[in-house]
Amino acid sequence: MAEVVNLRMVKKQVARKAARSAADANAAKHGRTKAERDLEKARAEKTARALDGHKRETE
Question: What is the pLDDT of residues 10-36, one digit of tens each?
Answer without folding.
Answer: 999 999 999 999 999 998 888 888 899
